[in-house]
Amino acid sequence: MKDIVSDEMRETMHNEELPVVIAGAGPAGLAAAIALARLGVETMLVERRAELSSLPRATVVSLRSMELIRSWGVEDAVLAGAVDVEWRGWQSDTLATVAQGSMWPVGIPSREQAALLSPTAPACVPQDHLEPVLLDHLRSLGGTRVHLHTEVVGVEDLPDGVEVVLRDLATGKIRTVRARYLVAADGARSPIRRALGIAMRGPDALAHVVNATFRAPLWSLVGEHRYGIYSVSDPAGAGTFLPAGRDDRWVYGTWVERHDVDGYTPERFARRIRAGVGVGDLEVSIERTGSFSFAAQLADRFRAGNVFLAGDAAHRVTPRGGTGMNTAIGGGHDLGWKVGWVLRGWSAPELLDTYEAERRPIAAHNVARSADPNGSTREAADEVHVDLGGRIPHAWVPSDEGRVSTLDLLTPGLTLFTGPDSAPWEAQSPAGPPITIRRLDAISARAIRIRGHTALLVRPDGTPAQLWTTEAAAAA
Q1: What is the pLDDT of residues 182-203, one digit of tens each?
Q2: How far is CA 296 from CA 38, 203, 345, in A?
Q3: How many Cα atoms within 13 Å fall on the side-chain side of residue 97?
């Protein structure tokens, strides 16, 4: 990739140095940047697009993703663009006959189920609402230089860092940035991944789908049957309807043969939508049309020296299960706080080896599920553990500000949960990450398995790091 840059270009380069460069302002890149900004690490986020996408794209925001969003303080802003639905699939001949249809589980807990597990709930939020909220929040934190309409045209991994060559697509100006680490969150066709010679394994072009974003008065038609996905089987309009924003904004998609992709005009889509809805004179306003192919692939490795792959650059999934954006958010957050800890001197660089070790099994599960023709149908109990991982239990506990979740008490450093008697644990070593002690009442402590003189040390992602069960352990 570095060969793209000529000697003449290099002579005009403006050199900069900073700890981290992130390529790609999608869900993975934004999550990594937010995690780093919360740790006070200076970062540059570059994005090839001149502005974030106006396409709804993904709409499933999983329980764990909403927990992270809540921890960043933007839950209300994200939910301001949410559609009020339960995450269930619904099958019927048409939307007009939805009352005669049937439900199928999509692997996402209902609101009632989520209330047992979490302080929040899964949401239906179009990606073109979510991404701007996250970008605005990132900018509010300070410390991150955001450059849209900027692409990476060269990468050279060095023993003590990465040289990243950038091009401003508006002016053509070339500059080079020297960073300690580079996060490649530059999408499914990642130029950085290809430059590193990292292969993707798994099937591509599993299926071809055409879709249309449109507006039509469908909520009044489905009435009380408000779900995140509708599948209709009428031959003239068979396909899938997805709510994609407020004010009756929808996406319709259907599988096609590859040779027929270009034949789907707005007029053809309108006819199919009317047939699928079951209302021949339905007013349909087509906003845009598109197509994509299914792929279920996993990168051979997520790291090459000082360069890390994240999001679609590391794993590609089909829409089955709605796990793509959530896997990206979880991976971006995981990588961000770990890189931040190393750069802050809170951990040895070996911590970065745990990024792939911990995230790869999750990505592999979701890739395999998405390749399964029946991957959209799963019981929530069979999938929620993949989404939540091994984080501590949620329990409501009293605080000076009112009732909060144990998950709300986590910090960007380490959090030490104790019972009512926290005195044995209050001496801290000056080395390593900061430790915040959270003293719980006896009942709240028992809810997260703390009894007597026990203390639970927890990472910023909620994963238990150590459980001490004796007073003698406090000194160590």
Answers
A1: 999 999 999 999 999 999 999 9
A2: 33, 6, 37
A3: 14
**Cα separation of 325 and 319, whole Å?**
10
Token pair 């199919």 in the structure block, residue: 272
Read off the tokens for 48.
């090839």
CB of 355 closer than 8 Å to CB of 303: yes
Nearest CA to 218 out of 289, 290, 279, 265 is that of 279
Percentage of the chain lying above the pLDDT 90 cut: 85
User: Does the pLDDT of residue 409 top 50, yes or no?
Assistant: yes
Task: Find where tokens 């790091």 sit.
Answer: 465
Instruction: Return d(Cα 360, Cα 358) in angstroms, integer.
Output: 6
Q: Is the pTM of this model over 0.85?
A: yes
* Chain segment 327-343, per-residue pLDDT in tens: 999 999 999 999 999 99
Q: Are 453 and 423 in contact (CB under 8 A)?
A: no
Q: Can you tell me the distance from the alpha carbon of 304 to that of 314, in angstroms, rounded to the nearest whole number?
A: 12
Beta strands in 24-101 (DSSP E): 43-47, 60-61, 86-92
**Half-sphere exposure of residue 159, counting CA atoms within 13 Å on the CB side?**
0
Report whether 332 contacts 381 (CB < 8 A).
Answer: no
Provide DSSP, 177-225: EEEEEEEE---TT-HHHHHHTPPEES---S-EEEEEEEE---HHHHTT-
- Picking from 181, 60, 69, the residue whose alpha carbon sits closest to that of residue 136 is 69
| Alpha-carbon distances, residue 217 vs 181, 214, 220, 275 (angstroms) | 49, 10, 6, 14
Helix ranges (DSSP H) in 39-142:
63-71, 75-79, 111-117, 127-141
State how far the alpha carbon of 398 is from the alpha carbons of 222, 403, 404, 419, 438, in Å.
41, 5, 6, 13, 12
Q: Does 6 score more than 90 pLDDT?
A: no
401 backbone dihedrals φ, ψ, rounded to 5°:
-95, 5
- For the chain, give the percent of residues with pLDDT over 70: 95
Local structure of residue 443 (DSSP, 8 states): H
The separation between CA 440 and the C-alpha centre of its own chain, rounded to angstroms, equals: 31
Other Cβ atoms less than 10 A from the Cβ of 236: the count is 11
**252 membership: H or E segment, kind and range:** strand 249-256
Pairing of strands 249-256, 150-158: unpaired
